[in-house]
Amino acid sequence: MQFLTISRRREMGAGSGDELRPAEVQRARALYSEGHIRQLWHRADVPGACILWEAESEHQLREMLESFPFVQAGIVDVSVFALQPYRGFGPEGAS
After folding, report:
1. pLDDT, tens digit, for every residue of 63-86?
2. Each residue's pLDDT tens digit, 4-25
3. Measured between alpha carbons, how far is 67 from 82 in angstroms, rounded to an integer?
4. Rounded to whole angstroms, how far apart are CA atoms 71 and 36?
5. Which of 7, 32, 57, 70 could crosslink 78 through cysteines, CB 3.0-4.6 Å?
6. Topology of domain 2-11+22-85, per CATH?
């Protein structure tokens, strides 16, 4: 199952969380190498990220999110969206 998460860094003052950045990057690398993170982008509009995920369930996804240092420290707000395949590429009349 695929999910999209969109995170936004909370306003916490200059430099907040910088000491956690190496661990945050390492966790993202580990989840990418395990095949859970498919794509990862930094947001251009605000500090944050958009991540395309592979997970067995939303519960598994949320467990992985909770393993990030920024999430644990309450530095980011994360929105989760479950995704479904686009039906327009299937046979005509398929619902």
Report:
1. 999 999 999 999 999 999 999 988
2. 999 999 986 655 788 999 999 9
3. 19
4. 17
5. 7
6. Alpha-Beta Plaits (3.30.70)
**Cα 11 to Cα 15: distance, rounded to the nearest angstrom:** 11
> DSSP H helical segments within 3-42, as ranges?
21-33
pLDDT, position 87: 86
Count of C-beta atoms within a 10 Å radius of residue 91: 6
Q: Is the pTM of this model over 0.90?
A: no
CB 69 within 8 A of CB 22: no
Domain ranges of the chain: 2-11+22-85
Residue 63 structure tokens: 């467990």
